[in-house]
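Agenda item 2: nicotinamide-adenine-dinucleotide complex prediction
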Amino acid sequence: MYNVLVTEHVHESGMELLTQAKDISTTIRTGMNRSELLDAVAEADAMLTRSGTPLDREIFDHAARLRVVARAGVGVDNIDISEASRRGVVIINAPTGNTLAATEHTMAMMLASVRSLPHAHASVHSGEWRRKDFMGNQLHGKKLLIIGLGRIGSQIALRARAFGMDVFGYDPYVASSHIGNLGVTLLDDLDGALAIADVVTLHVPLTSETRGMLGAREVKSMKQGAYLVNCARGNLADERAVADALREGRIRGAAFDVFGEEPIRPDHPLLADDIRNQVVMTPHIGANTHEAQSAVARIAVSNMLAALRGESYEHAVNQPFMASLLPEHRRQYLSIARRMGIIAARLLSGAPKDIRIVLRGPLFSSETENIHFELPYRYTPYTVSLLKGFLEVHLGPEVNYMSAALLAQDRSLSVEESRGDARTYNNILEVTVRSEKDSVSLSGTVTEENKLRIVSVNGYWIDFVPEGTLLLFSNHDRPGVIGRIGTLLGDSGVNIANFALGRRNGSGLALGVLQLDSAVPAELIECLERDRDFIWASAVTLPENM
Ligand code: NAD
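Presented output:
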């Protein structure tokens, strides 16, 4: 049985999925204070929350069993994602359930703003009939700039086109082929785009790059008399600068559903009396439709259940990639990378200082460059997998794809990923790990038949399958040395399954890898290290089912 702790009100369609699940024991505790929450999380395998449950380091400290947090909604600002990732807790949200609700609310806000609907309504309500005070603008024929052409931005584009708007988009991360039939003209200069748009609407996530993207300077670049709509996230636009622009008559209207601080304070700049007739505000209700809440709850709960049960799931916020969704050949590269990480960690002496990974070949050139992304999304899956292998040797098997890059950073291990052209092998991964006193390098590949191979160690070309128990050693290249190691292993009752040898011309040294049927006794390694014919020896056992 899995214990699921529900800390906030979640739509009944999601709760039904929980109560119907035979392997789930559900505890509903809404409205807990902090100390109650700290106690309650101790027994939880999973939590179902919304935006009102703060999940910080102290909470994670008390949640030893916690594996999954599902957020019935989109924003995860209330969750310390890095802390969750370090502990291997998967954070799942439901970003697709409320797309249409947010889209329709944005359209409503746009129309409300250009026609002053709330103000006209309030006026009629107060007994007035002031028709000429409510002279608006029509959307037809106007230029709309959509900043962020993801799920919601694309849906806005379709609806705005139906209104006869001329639709422009700014989204440096979307390919023009992707927006092919939306009828949107993509612009790559935000300032230029702001200068031509009659209506600007924001649909980007809040990231370090988008925070404050419409600051005082950008608001000044907006076309005279334009309208601004923000139904995405607070802190994307500088609310004070928007209020100033309204006051100075540079922009005509602003419609906001989201704010930098929610709930807003009575002295919020957009509540000022002199601009109130130009502002439409709603209390972050973009996703508040019955349909959206029902869809969001079902998406969050079903993915949470799948994650708990080890089945494949969607919308993990802190999972840098889903291994199960990669094609088999790429999954094999994940596997070789992790094995290379384990072997490198076993061979390196001293505290690791830096890891350099080079991805060579066409397979890797199609990987997106993520270097500007935050951890754990900065590296390709292969580097993440290599880091996982490398770190799990000393930190234990709980190091996972979410935590690997963060743990490397915590340990001041510098990680550098680069790409290069392939040489002897079609696609090859190369890694060099350095400590103060040592350096280890390995290359690994996957054959056409999807078989894993390590093809070089410390500059020696060699070919072995990284599986089971391996004994790696470097020796003086003299007659009888290899025979002796065979005798020593035989005397210890260890059978050799395979043997690979690499030599470097003129060095007088060789490197050997033995694949063994059983573990290597520690005394044997000590014996080899004392032997003048051997420079070093190291045993590595690779976990099964990797
Ligand atoms: P999405 O992930 O599908 O799309 C976001 C788009 O923004 C992507 O295409 C991305 O490439 C683009 N983007 C990222 N950085 C950018 C940048 N610097 N400049 C321009 N474009 C950039 O997200 P979505 O589901 O469409 O949601 C959009 C926003 O709406 C999010 O902030 C979401 O939190 C918010 N939202 C609000 C409500 C509400 O209640 N008001 C409801 C749902 C969603």
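Discussion summary: Residues 335 and 545 are 10 Å apart (CA to CA).
Owner for follow-up: CH.
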